[in-house]
Amino acid sequence: PYADSVWVYYTTMIASRAGDAETARRAGERWVAAGLARLSAHIDHYIRQFWCWARALTGDDPAGAAAEAEELLAAHLLDPPQWGIAYHYALIAEMWLAAGSPDRADAALGRADQAMWDYGQRYAEGLLLLLKARLLQARGAPPTTVRAAAEHAHTQSTAYEAHLFARRAEDLLPAPGGDA
C-alpha cells in the first residue's frame, strides 16, 4: 500500500506542475478508494494538497477545496517549514482563481512570494509568475498587460528550465497571428 501512495504522490505532483488536473484527480481518487489515507504516511498531506487542487480545477467545489488546502498547509507544512510551501500556496492561489475569488488568490500569491524568499523555494517562481498573469486576466487587465506578464513567466520559466511552467504560460499567449 505504501508503494501505491508513493505512486499517487508523484503522479499528482507531476500532474499539478503540468496543469493536468484530470490526471491528478484520477490518481487522488485511486488513493481515496484504496483507503491509503489510513496509512498516515509522511506524504499524505502532500497528496491531499494535490487532490484539493485537482478537485478545484475540475469544478468540484473550488472554494471548499482551496479552504481545505489552506488548512492542510497550515497544519502540516509551516511548523517546522517543509518542502513546497511556496509551491502549495501557488496551487491554493490557482484554486481561488478557479473559485472566482481573485482577492483570495492574490493573498495566497503574496504568501507564496514570501515563502519563496523565506525558505529559498525558488523552483516555484515560474508558477507564481504565471498565476500573477492569470490574476491580472481575472481582474480584467488589458490583454497587452496579461500578455506581457505571461511572456515574463514564460521567459523566466524557460531560463530556469522549468519547462512545465513555461508550457503552461504559453497557454496564456495568443497563437501566432492571433490577437494580443
Summarize the structure.
The chain has helices at residues 2-18, 21-33, 44-57, 62-76, 85-98, 102-119, 125-138, 143-159, 163-170. By secondary structure, it is an all-alpha fold.
Structure write-up:
The radius of gyration is 16 Å and the shape is globular. The protein has a single domain (2-170), classed as Serine Threonine Protein Phosphatase 5, Tetratricopeptide repeat. It has helices at residues 2-18, 21-33, 44-57, 62-76, 85-98, 102-119, 125-138, 143-159, 163-170. With 180 residues, it is mainly alpha-helical. The longest helix is centred in the middle third of the chain and has 18 residues, at 102-119. The mean pLDDT is 93. The termini are far apart. The protein is built from nine helices and no strands. Helix 1 (2-18) runs antiparallel to helix 2 (21-33), helix 3 (44-57) packs parallel to helix 5 and helix 5 packs antiparallel against helix 6.
Mind telling me the CATH class?
A: Mainly Alpha
The count of helical stretches stands at: 9
Our count of domains comes out at: 1
Output the radius of gyration: 16 Å
Strand content: under 5%
